[in-house]
Automatic annotation (TrEMBL):
<dbReference type="InterPro" id="IPR052354">
    <property type="entry name" value="Cell_Wall_Dynamics_Protein"/>
</dbReference>
<protein>
    <submittedName>
        <fullName>Putative chitinase</fullName>
    </submittedName>
</protein>
<dbReference type="InterPro" id="IPR023346">
    <property type="entry name" value="Lysozyme-like_dom_sf"/>
</dbReference>
């Protein structure tokens, strides 16, 4: 790379005369067009006229790199996440969508310090599985049987107690109104969410409708009033020039792609497990099963999560 070279704005007769033979010019056989061209070049030269003014010296060897721009090139933030990574994490995704979310992913990867390659691979593979890298809203328009299976019965040893043959619960009923008031909740997302999310996750009772108001939204769905408050607190702390109230305006997590993306980072960096274990720390060294357990509370979708992670690991040279 040439960084310092003689500038072209000072006319040096000997430099151009050295081309005479190549141009077919000699004293005995003058090349008039070449003579005129050298005269034109001399007329365009201005360096000697400005020596001593405006910082211009007689040294015609100038640097061809802007010093401030050069320093800036070393300090400019690098992209921690690339389009190739998004393709690996979400092979069925649209390129235009990936390009749209990439700036936000890099903005918050830098802000929240998601920098370690294995942690990035875990983050993208888990989000890829959960939402296909899209800002989504929880769908709760369930059929009668689906809502009973999902929310109606108690578990035993991590086994769902719903019995499809008898439409009852083998290990005890958790929410009896799904049987006694089936028509009120089936195929009605607002009624169902208000009931099944009532009196937990910071929500009020069923009548408050908090369960529906604070249903899951975002890339890694923020669910429950307390989680919307947590997101508000973390966002405002890290973005003092953009104060928001996501408790008062929960739909911002789906109407704004940027906030929907950021919500995944807040989840990732605030999620803790037993004994206060942090998800973001487990992701630096842990296995897909370890991370899935913290994200999902079990191993649902493990095969797909692992496939996405392995594609990223191959791309990013992660052992």
């Amino acid at each position: 790379m040439v960084t310092r070279y003689e500038n072209e704005w000072q006319f040096k007769q000997e430099k151009w005369d050295s081309l005479d033979e190549l141009m077919g010019h000699s004293e005995s056989e003058p090349h008039n067009e070449w003579i005129e061209e050298k005269a034109r070049i001399k007329k365009l030269s201005w360096w000697d006229k400005l020596v001593g003014h405006h910082g211009i010296t007689s040294d015609t060897n100038v640097r061809h790199i802007h010093p401030i721009a050069l320093i800036g090139s070393f300090t400019a933030p690098r992209d921690l996440i690339t389009l190739e990574m998004l393709r690996a994490a979400n092979p069925a995704g649209e390129e235009a969508h990936h390009a749209n979310i990439l700036p936000y992913l890099n903005k918050y990867a830098l802000a929240y310090k998601l920098e370690q390659p294995k942690a990035i691979a875990h983050f993208l593979s888990q989000v890829g599985h959960e939402s296909q890298l899209r800002v989504v809203e929880e769908g709760l328009r369930f059929s009668a049987r689906q809502m009973k299976k999902t929310y109606g019965c108690r578990y035993h040893n991590k086994v769902n107690g719903y019995n499809e043959q008898t439409d009852s619960c083998d290990f005890g009923v958790l929410r009896s109104k799904l049987w006694t008031e089936t028509s009120h909740y089936a195929l009605n997302a607002e009624n169902l969410a208000s009931y099944v999310y009532a009196d937990r996750m910071g929500n009020g009772n069923e009548a408050s409708r908090d369960g529906y108001r604070y249903r899951g939204r975002g890339m890694l769905q923020v669910t429950g009033k307390s989680e919307y408050q947590r997101f508000t607190n973390v966002h405002n702390q890290r973005n003092p020039s953009d104060i928001q109230d996501f408790v008062a305006n929960p739909d911002l997590l789906v109407s704004s792609t940027e906030y929907g993306v950021e919500s995944a980072f807040v989840f990732w960096f605030t999620k803790t497990g037993q004994g206060g274990t942090k998800l973001c720390e487990v992701a630096k060294t842990g296995s897909v099963a370890d991370v899935t357990q913290m994200v999902n509370g079990g191993q649902n979708g493990y095969a797909d999560r692992n496939t996405r992670f392995q594609a990223l690991a191959a791309l990013m040279n992660i052992n």
